[in-house]
Amino acid sequence: MRWLLAPDSYKGSLDAAAVAEAMQLGIERADPQAVCMLRPMADGGEGTQDALHAAVGGQWLEFPVCNATGDTIMAPCLLLPDGTAVLEVARIIGLPEAGDSPVAQRSSRGIGQMLAALLQSGQRRIAVALGGSSTNDGGAGCLAALGLQLLNAQGQQLDGALQDLPQLFTLDADGLLEAFADVELEIWSDVDNPLSGPRGATAVFGPQKGVAAADIVRIDGEITHFAQLLDARLQQDTRHLPGSGAAGGLGYAMLLLGGHMQSGAQAVARHLGLAVALQSVDWVFTGEGRSDSQTLAGKAPACVAALAGAAAVPVSLLSGAVIADEEGALAARFAGCFSLCNRPMSLESAMQEAPQRLAQLAEQVARTILAARAGA
User: Fold this and answer.
1) Residue 90: which of 104, 76, 80, 100 has the closest Cα?
2) End residue of a domain, out of 230, 262, 294
């Protein structure tokens, strides 16, 4: 049989390429003649660059930029064979690296620095994978690094971290948009939240980044004030656009610069040539660390299932954990949903044993499929 293996990562345990390799190992035990095509997936969050590089290659570029807490790091950018430079927000201002630093002190400045470096190096097709940010500054830090001047009442320039926004009195956006006039800017995200309000960046995503419940309204107001000033100066209404609340407001900054929002998983699938690959296979395995009803809201396995369905190819879900929804929507999308946790175990044990257990699971599912097809 011909198999397509297109999983996302098992976060904290295996990257997407390692998941695909474990699946292949199990399938080949059941089917020594198997032809396996590995297409590790991502949805625009952590691991997007690695998944793309594992599948299609490309050239790694590195630039010195600031992380969320202001330290200088060498951050990677992947230049794909088709000329698209992929910037992964999680690798510059990601949540794990921010540690227990106060969210008010974090800034998205490093994203603006990376964009500036890419422009200076001649890149004109840029994709920004927004998932996994630790910042909640409305994109102010990013835009400040690109030339936006944020000024307090005394005319002093502010850096653009969240803690600077209460002091914002006026701003100067001259020349901000011109540098991106000839740039094809893609925004990879599955978030459609606006910048502010009850469904905005601070209210919905702020708490997981360290925003206290008592501070949500105040911070939301500060970000709204910043965006109102900037939208008015540029004669735009960007802060209300779907996706402007992604990545703590970085979606707002990218949209302001002329970016086009699209599903991260669909964008990755397009670059991997997943739709074409599906025309020549008999079965698909996908998966992720934990699958539940949220999986169907634009996550990588749902994207794989949709493409497989359009190609009339069965697709099975092999995930670390599978939490069934009462409506059965998750089960209805796949030809079987399987968890590698086949006995009571701690999360730590499950993560440590993931490669072996995943190979065992893939083998047993493949044997079942082969037996059913032989008897058909």
Assistant:
1) 76
2) 262
Q: Is 249 helix (H, G, I), strand (E, B) or coil?
A: helix
Record the tokens describing residue 222, joined without a space.
Answer: 């500060």
Which range marks the domain in which residue 348 is found? Answer: 2-41+275-375
Residue 85 near residue 79 (C-beta atoms within 8 A): yes
Same domain? For 202 and 319 the reply is: no
Q: In the prediction, which pLDDT does 327 show? A: 85
Can you give the pLDDT at residue 224? 97
Cα 308 from Cα 65, distance rounded (Å): 39
**Are the C-beta atoms of 68 and 104 separated by less than 8 Å?**
no
Strand pairing class (149-151; 157-158): antiparallel
Residue where the block lists tokens 């109102």? 228
Do 194 and 294 sit in the same domain of this protein?
no
Instruction: Retrieve residue 339's tokens.
Output: 């968890």
- Per-residue pLDDT tens over the stretch 186-236: 999 988 899 999 999 999 999 999 999 999 999 999 999 999 999 999 999
Single out the residue of 376, 193, 189, 359 nearest to residue 282, CA to CA: 376
What parts of the chain have a pLDDT lower than 50? none
How high is the pLDDT of residue 350?
A: 67
Beta bridge partners of 316: 285
> Residue 345 — φ and ψ, nearest 5°?
-160, 155
Q: What is the gyration radius of the CA atoms in the chain, in angstroms?
A: 22
pTM score above 0.85: yes
- Domain count along the chain: 2
Q: Which two tokens stand for residue 225?
A: 């004030």
* Number of neighbouring beta carbons within 10 Å of residue 98: 20
242 shares a domain with 299: no
pLDDT attached to residue 348: 74
Looking at residue 44, what DSSP letter applies? Answer: S
**What's the sign of the alpha-carbon dihedral 296, 302, 308, 313?**
negative
- Cα–Cα distance measured from residue 256 to residue 264, given in angstroms and rounded to the nearest whole number: 19
CA distance 331 to 17: 25
Nearest of 6, 51, 61, 284 to residue 188 by alpha carbon: 51
Rounded to the nearest angstrom, the gap between the alpha carbon of residue 311 and the centroid of all alpha carbons in its chain is 25
CATH of residue 68's domain is: 3.90.1510.10
In a domain, 182, yes or no: yes
Beta strands in 208-350 (DSSP E): 260-262, 283-286, 290-291, 315-319, 321-322, 337-339
